[in-house]
From TrEMBL:
Region feature Disordered, mapped onto this chain: 336-364, 451-482
Catalysed reactions listed for this entry: tRNA(Tyr) + L-tyrosine + ATP = L-tyrosyl-tRNA(Tyr) + AMP + diphosphate + H(+)
Organism the protein comes from: Danionella cerebrum
GO biological process: response to stress; tyrosyl-tRNA aminoacylation
Chain ranges of the TRNA-binding domain: 365-469
Keyword Hydrolase: no
Protein name, as recorded: Tyrosine--tRNA ligase
Principal location: cytoplasm
Top-rank taxon, per record: Eukaryota
Protein keywords: Aminoacyl-tRNA synthetase, ATP-binding, Cytoplasm, Ligase, Nucleotide-binding, Nucleus, Protein biosynthesis, RNA-binding, tRNA-binding
Lineage of the species this protein comes from: Eukaryota, Metazoa, Chordata, Craniata, Vertebrata
Gene3D superfamilies linked to this entry: HUPs, Nucleic acid-binding proteins, Tyrosyl-Transfer RNA Synthetase
Length: 529
């Protein structure tokens, strides 16, 4: 199809739905002369999820525009990024990625014969490449390397040297894959600008860089392989897809940080050029949209119900996933999936010298807490307790949670109404004077006469359901429910404090969302409970 298009038509197809293109003039020049050579790389870490359909749909666009496309399975990068993929599993992870990505491409009708697949260690361990790594390391400062990887390489309290090498290797890949352009998410931008700055210093050409927007996950933040609730796995069963979509953040009329709407925009429309909202006949019946802007407009006007949107996406998504599930029903691929991603080993009973230690004795770390941003919808007095109030709080689920607290003794109902707050969402629900409290409002407090209490403040622009994490503990899934006898929160709470800069911290590590730090207005040095 690429040969039948003009250079302008190819440019429009290549650049549609991209957030940014660095080197747009160079791109247009190449398209007037020949076909564009481009690569997309993926580190073979966690299992690919449905957000991978976003780059897959763009790869389909590139091929329609006649581009020569290389897909890089970046196994060495997966190891360098805080060892997200253990060395002994690298080969298996590459095989899994290759099988699942090919299955994804086949499910959206992309001919595999036009693609080139390359494994990173096939060329990154060569003498020439290794010498270039040393040459580059003599030019790039520690500051630039750390800054370049800030949004891609896992950030931990004590970073490894390997994470500083990661951005430089990604820059060198452009030269060794002999491409004109690299394609990736906008979270890669700092790595792309590092490549533009330093490759010419090695005598290599500055490349074009094309960036997709980051698609929100089901909880409203970035869709991540390490955050189970934010993603739908490509091999999830239909009932799991339904369950995860049902819990997805999809507030009526809210088009911001809406992962369900974003999937329609960046995957379903580019692939099918239309989207069908399936509705009961009494609500007007099915409606076919041929323009995404109309979908967004109707959703914003609340003419599309979140439940109808989720049900319609569920149907379309399962059509994409069915061929992938079927392919992985074979014994060989089932074995590959379990070998590449073995279940974490469990403690079978501890050391002989400590017979009381059991498999239930797990590390007490803040990633076990399910802390989220919430929005107060309503505040009313508890019917059976003068000092308690009921707050209905939106935490990015289909229904708001009821929280019973005495906060109104310290802050007025008017100040609480519509306020963004921070909640601990995986405590066991507890009845307080006959009404079940389904979460805990996290507040800063200073004891004294009088006692001072303030709700914690999420960063500006936060949305209900945004995940709150502790720096250095971003990965790992929270417990489904914290067991009261284990006192996990109580043990962690001892080290939850407000810093001298009014930032919420655990052991001097900041509590964060994807938009910034959790703060408190005035209670410097306060405890958090």
């Amino acid at each position: 199809m690429g040969e039948q298009l003009s250079s302008d038509e190819k440019f429009q197809l290549i650049s549609r739905n991209l957030q940014e293109v660095l080197g747009e003039d160079r791109l247009q020049e190449i398209l007037k002369e020949r076909e564009l050579r481009i690569y997309w790389g993926t580190a073979t870490t966690g299992k690919p999820h449905v957000a991978y359909f976003v780059p897959m749909s763009k790869i389909a666009d590139f091929l329609k525009a006649g581009c020569e496309v290389t897909i890089l399975f970046a196994d060495l990068h997966a190891f360098l990024d805080n060892m997200k993929a253990p060395w002994e599993l690298l080969e298996l992870r590459v095989k899994y990625y290759e099988q699942v990505i090919k299955a994804m491409l086949e499910s959206i009708g992309v001919p595999l014969g036009k693609l080139k697949f390359v494994k990173g260690t096939d060329f990154q361990l060569s003498r020439e490449y290794t010498l270039d790594v040393y040459r580059l390391s003599s030019m790039v400062t520690e500051h630039d390397a750390k800054k370049a990887g800030a949004e891609v390489v896992k950030q931990v309290e004590h970073p490894l040297l390997s994470g500083l090498l990661y951005p430089g290797l990604q820059a060198l890949d452009e030269e060794y894959l002999k491409v004109d352009a690299q394609f990736g998410g906008v979270d890669q931008r700092k790595i792309f600008t590092l490549a533009e700055k330093y490759l010419p210093s090695l005598g290599y050409t500055k490349r074009i860089h094309m960036m997709n927007p980051m698609v929100p996950g089901l909880t409203g933040g970035k869709m991540s392989s390490s955050e189970e609730e934010s993603k739908i796995d490509l091999l999830d069963k239909t009932q799991d897809v339904k369950k995860k979509l049902k819990k997805a953040f999809c507030e009526p009329g809210n088009v911001e940080n809406n992962g369900v709407l974003s999937f329609v925009k960046h995957v379903l429309f580019p692939l099918h050029s239309e989207f069908v909202i399936k509705r009961d006949p009494k609500w007007g019946g099915d409606k076919v949209y041929t323009d995404y802007e109309e979908v967004e407009k109707d959703f914003a006007a609340e003419q599309i119900h979140p439940g109808d949107l989720k049900a319609s996406v569920e149907v379309a998504l399962n059509k994409l996933l069915d061929p992938i599930r079927k392919k992985f029903e074979t014994p060989e691929l089932k074995k590959l999936a379990t070998s590449a991603y073995p279940e974490p080993s469990k403690n079978k009973g501890g050391a002989k010298g400590n017979p009381k230690q059991t498999a239930d004795d797990e590390e007490i770390v803040p990633s076990r807490l399910d802390i989220r941003v919430g929005k107060v919808i309503s505040v009313e007095k508890h019917p059976d307790a003068d000092s308690l109030y009921l707050e209905k709080i939106d935490v990015g689920e289909d229904q708001p949670r009821t929280v019973v607290s005495g906060l109104v003794a310290y802050i007025s109902e008017e100040e609480l109404q519509d306020r963004l707050v921070v909640l601990l969402c995986n405590l066991k629900p507890q009845k307080m004077r006959g009404i079940e409290s389904q979460a805990m409002l996290l507040c800063a407090s200073i004891e004294g006469e009088p006692r001072k209490v303030e709700p914690l403040d999420p960063p500006e622009g936060s949305a209900p359901g945004d995940r709150v994490y502790t720096e250095g503990y971003e990965s790992g899934n929270p417990d489904e429910e914290l067991k009261p006898k284990k006192k996990v929160f109580e043990k962690l709470q001892v080290d939850l404090k407000i810093s001298g800069e009014f930032v919420a911290q655990w052991k001097e590590q900041n509590l964060m969302t994807k938009l910034g730090k959790i703060t408190c207005k005035t209670l410097k040095g306060g405890n958090i409970s």
